[in-house]
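Case 215 in the screening queue. Each case pairs one protein sequence with one candidate compound; here the compound is zinc ion. For every case the pipeline is the same: read the inputs, emit a complex structure as tokens, and attach any notable structural observations.

Predict complex for case 215.
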Amino acid sequence: MKLTLSFDNGPDPEVTPGVLDVLRDRGVIAQFYVIGRQLGGRHGRRLVERARDDGHLVGNHSFSHAVPLGQDRRPDAVLAEIAATEALLAPLVPGRRFRPFGGGGAIGRHLLSRRAVDYLVANGYSCVLWNSVPRDWIDPDGWPARALADCATRPHTLLALHDVPHACLAGLAGFIDAARAAGFELVSDVPPDCAPIVDGRIVGSLDDLVAPAGY
Ligand SMILES: [Zn+2]
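Case 215 output:
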């Protein structure tokens, strides 16, 4: 069984350095999906650069993380959320990866709009989802046990954690050790079922991910 770790909603000056330390000490390469408004200051940019230099993939997780794109009626939502963050990320990291947000990690038609899909395709993005959400931000103590049990239900889990205060960090080192002891291989790639768009090509079904027309 394989396990890929991802960390959303950072970078956070209090938490992301600790997450990066744990990953470095345990030799784990992961993925980070960052929020554009947290990249404005020097601290945010430096954390992205450190994650990049440590070998991690860093992607775009919207600018404001406020209204899911499938529910955002602003005509310029795609530019304000995806393009604005990419303008900050592009000088720092290679590649274009976007992870949508919303609904407490539920997969659904709130995640994307048709406009967003068109933009991702036209600009060569990969769209990276997840297949396990152990709700570390709600249960900082209990998420590792729940995640281990859930990861055992599929051959390759892409786990969505959060490098924000009071979420995954306290349990992260123990979780990685327990996962390895249980036989999981920590890898850095994305399971095919979690990437419906790869380098601008639609390779999976978007039916359950895109809002009805009008958004
Ligand atoms: Zn998020």
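Case 215 observations:
- The mean pLDDT is 96.
- Helices lie at 16-26, 42-53, 77-89, 114-122, 143-151, 169-181.
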